[in-house]
């Protein structure tokens, strides 16, 4: 599996596994655990989760999937903005660690900006890092102005990643946030990279897919990862989807493919507020 570098030089896989909507229904539990295990077997060893998903249920699914193989995984989790005070962040992280049944989270993100001062959350992240409970920290749903504000905080330049909505239909970040992130060597983590399945019948994507004997999902993922720095984290419970997504790693977009995507989904020509799902 190809890797990208966090700002401190640590390599992480460019293709991981999402878990939103997992841990919500007991009837899907076995299938969700199996899907994550399959993803790990296929080399997608970065797993993205959050205290919000399934009210902690997704983290419990992750714990089951990584049983006996914690050291081969890179676990990303997130604190809710309503918990992101100095004390609340630490308490939320400790609850997540318990549900994940691990002693550390590899990358701990602020899920989106809330009412607590960024400095307070950063200080809590640093306290957690000093205790070894998290290894890196980052943010999610931060627009360019948010990133600049973050970087101006004490210790803010330690941010390791920004997880944002990114797929051909939601490519506003191509105007400013993505180039800025590349310039600062802060990898973007692309969430909802197949637009939760809604993009997969788009004729332009299907046409490109056909040229490669691939799927529209693979085209979306290969496109998101085309800069060799962005990390895509598709969620799949169906094992066929997990295998399909893994194969996107080996699909390279040609200049013709990229031009066709630009025609169907024009690149932004001005700054737009960051979209969220
Ligand atoms: N930071 C944030 O605010 C934020 C927001 C949203 C998401 N996320 C993270 O990003 C992850 C991915 O985003 P997402 O779950 O919103 O959407 P997504 O990955 O774009 O789409 C997931 C949906 O697409 C289907 N799917 C996946 N691969 C497919 C394939 N190859 N062919 C056909 N269908 C396919 C899945 O079906 P099955 O499940 O049935 O296989 C599921 O219904 C989340 O799970 C979460 O970890 C973060």
Description:
It is built from ten helices and nine strands. It is α/β, with parallel strands linked by helices. It has a single domain, classed as NADP-dependent oxidoreductase domain (TIM Barrel, Alpha-Beta Barrel), CATH 3.20.20.100. NADP nicotinamide-adenine-dinucleotide phosphate is lined by residues 18-20, 48, 111, 140-141, 163, 191-197, 200, 215, 217, 233-238, 241, 244-245, 277.
Structural class: alpha/beta
Chemical compounds bound to the protein? NADP nicotinamide-adenine-dinucleotide phosphate
User: Approximately how much beta-strand content do the residues carry?
Assistant: 5-15%
* Record field, number of beta strands: 9
The major beta sheet can be summarized as:
7 strands, parallel
CATH class wording:
Alpha Beta
What quaternary form is this?
single chain
> Can you tell me the number of structural domains?
1
The total of helices stands at 10
CATH architectural name: Alpha-Beta Barrel
Strand order, largest beta sheet: 3-4-5-6-7-8-9
């Amino acid at each position: 599996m190809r890797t990208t570098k966090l700002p401190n030089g640590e390599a992480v896989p460019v293709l991981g596994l999402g878990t939103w909507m997992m841990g919500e229904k007991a009837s899907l539990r076995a299938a969700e655990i199996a899907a994550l295990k399959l993803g790990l077997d296929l080399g997608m060893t970065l797993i993205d989760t959050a205290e919000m998903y399934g009210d902690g249920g997704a983290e419990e699914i992750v714990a089951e999937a990584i049983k006996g193989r914690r050291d081969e995984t890179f676990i990303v989790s997130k604190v809710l903005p309503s918990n992101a005070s100095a004390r609340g962040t630490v308490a939320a992280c400790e609850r997540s660690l318990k549900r994940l049944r691990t002693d550390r989270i590899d990358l701990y993100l602020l899920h989106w900006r809330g009412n607590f001062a960024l400095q307070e959350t950063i200080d809590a992240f640093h306290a957690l890092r000093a205790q070894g409970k998290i290894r890196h920290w980052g943010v999610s749903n931060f627009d360019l102005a948010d990133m600049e504000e973050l970087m101006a905080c004490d210790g803010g330049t330690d941010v390791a990643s920004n997880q944002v909505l990114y797929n051909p239909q939601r490519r506003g970040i191509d105007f400013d946030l993505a180039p800025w992130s590349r310039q600062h060597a802060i990898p973007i983590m692309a969430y909802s990279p197949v637009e939760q399945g809604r993009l997969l019948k788009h004729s332009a994507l299907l046409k490109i897919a056909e040229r490669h004997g691939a799927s529209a999902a693979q085209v979306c993922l290969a496109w998101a990862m085309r800069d060799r720095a962005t990390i895509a984290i598709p969620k799949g419970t169906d094992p066929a989807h997990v295998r399909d997504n893994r194969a996107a790693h080996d699909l390279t977009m040609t200049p013709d493919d990229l031009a066709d995507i630009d025609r169907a989904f024009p690149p932004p020509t001005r700054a737009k507020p960051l979209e969220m799902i």
